[in-house]
């Protein structure tokens, strides 16, 4: 049932995302930025980029070529390299939520002992790179071995035989190693019986309808692959099998930029993981850089005074860069079909365009979060949102109110239902910063007439199907007889305090006759 619910939720969210309209002025500015800076950086063969903004949807832009005479198109797949790692970390957290495994499990509980690998390393230490395991993949002689055998399938056990001496004692430092995620994939397979590619397909890609994303070698290509250029040489005719079986869960996936921002939006909107699991992903720890911290398959970086989440990816012929603004919930993806490539800088410049032009972050909405239907004149407001020239309010079904300012008066009709109040800042570049407040609307209120002697009712207006307490002064040795119309006495008859559940209706009464021995 949980999987069905997630699938339906993701499907409806995708329909809403696709129905949104991206601001035309902002789209033009983003494309101009992409054209300008890719044109100035000679080592970017081609680039595909996407931006997701809540309330606006997705913009995608392309520039450059796959190869001579074939421009990059928005549906071309490119290698995302180490941006594969967040998919793997998410799968491990899903299995943790289901008690299939625990992030605190040691390697020895799932895998045999490998040379130079401490069996007491935990899964969490793999995912946040605090294991101390060295990384042989892109250094000699193993890089040369992969290059010399482009069609060979390298098994994880074979790759593990390449691992050298540890970088540091487990848990004492940070050291980025692709081997960490290869081991995580091996654990996932031993725990479930399925290869990590199948787990990603079934649990993430299919529910999110990400049909342009695939795990290379383990899955067939599902669209047009942009030619990959390495040191300005076209490697399209060179097999990727050796490279992507050696790298495996550390970087074997391909995607489009639009599906990557869709993925980030879904993940950080809470469509796939519990709040506790998301907190694990974003529990950033220190590294050797003051401007770079690492969580689980996700980094936190500060560039030019702007702090964001994301990840980079580098492989032979492709580069990828993800940026997530945790305040605005804006996602930015840049993909390039060349390495080396200066596309990271271009991706940041696209993010900066968005950050500098749309309305900024919003503080929380103030106002009642729980009320009865037919409650009118309820005021909600937020402090002024930076750069907002007007405001757009969305109300729960059955609630009415209109405002283009940072305050709104809402009437909750008799048919009003529980739901979110959302306010977005708006300016010439569309909607931006927003805030949400969940409002619980109880069934239609029913006035209660409390007759003399009934004491204090807990509320003058109560909600149907809710229970309330009524009491009168206690007199020693007395018994009490209560009469209720329009409701049911749940407990307390004969005492000085009763609990009443009210039915649907217009008026109910509580009366009391007191008997004193």
Keywords:
12 helices; Beta-lactamase; 9-stranded antiparallel sheet; Immunoglobulin-like; alpha+beta; 517 residues; globular
Task: Explain what this protein looks like in three dimensions.
With 517 residues, this protein is an alpha+beta fold. The chain has 3 domains: 2-357, 3-Layer(aba) Sandwich (Beta-lactamase); 370-442, Immunoglobulin-like (Sandwich); 446-515. The chain has 12 helices and 29 strands. The protein has a 9-stranded antiparallel sheet with strand order 3-2-1-14-13-12-11-10-9, with helices on both faces. Strand 13 and strand 14 form a beta hairpin. The model is unreliable at 4-8 (pLDDT under 50).
Rg for CA atoms: 29 Å
Total count of domains: 3
What strand line-up does the widest sheet have? 3-2-1-14-13-12-11-10-9
The number of strands is 29
- Helix content, binned percent: 25-40%
Which helices and strands, and how do they pair?
Layout: H1 2-19, H2 24-40, E1 46-53, E2 57-67, E3 70-71, E4 78-79, H3 84-97, H4 123-127, H5 142-148, H6 156-160, H7 178-192, H8 196-205, E5 214-215, E6 229-230, E7 233-234, H9 241-247, E8 253-255, H10 257-268, H11 275-281, E9 285-289, E10 292-294, E11 299-303, E12 306-315, E13 318-325, E14 330-336, E15 338-339, H12 343-357, E16 370-372, E17 375-381, E18 390-394, E19 399-400, E20 407-412, E21 419-427, E22 430-442, E23 445-450, E24 461-463, E25 467-471, E26 479-485, E27 487-491, E28 497-502, E29 508-515
Parallel strand pairs: 6-15, 16-22, 23-29
Antiparallel strand pairs: 1-2, 1-14, 2-3, 4-8, 5-8, 6-7, 9-10, 10-11, 11-12, 12-13, 13-14, 17-20, 18-21, 19-20, 21-22, 23-24, 25-28, 26-29, 27-28
Helix pairs in contact: 2-12, 3-7
